[in-house]
Amino acid sequence: MTSRTTQTVVRFSSPFRLPGFDKAQPAGEYRIDYDEELIEGVSRLAWMRVGAFIHLPAIAAQSSTQQMMPIQPSDLETALEKDHQQL
Fold first, then answer.
1. Which of 6, 58, 72, 82 is deepest in the core (most CB within 10 A)?
2. What pTM was estimated for this model as a whole?
């Protein structure tokens, strides 16, 4: 099966929390990696997300260490919707 990783940046205007995180993360821009697999047997190219990772800390944060944490794409979408509703 063919797979790929795509990357995007999301922006939170307020501190946010995702399931499995010990504490809230500060507002800012975060890099997200999506692992995707090619769906076989369809007449055109289609990709299915099979995993997602958030890079910590935020892009603008000054830190000597960085980490990638696995997240559920649906949890990320819920957190982004909540953040945008607060504006």
1. 58
2. 0.88
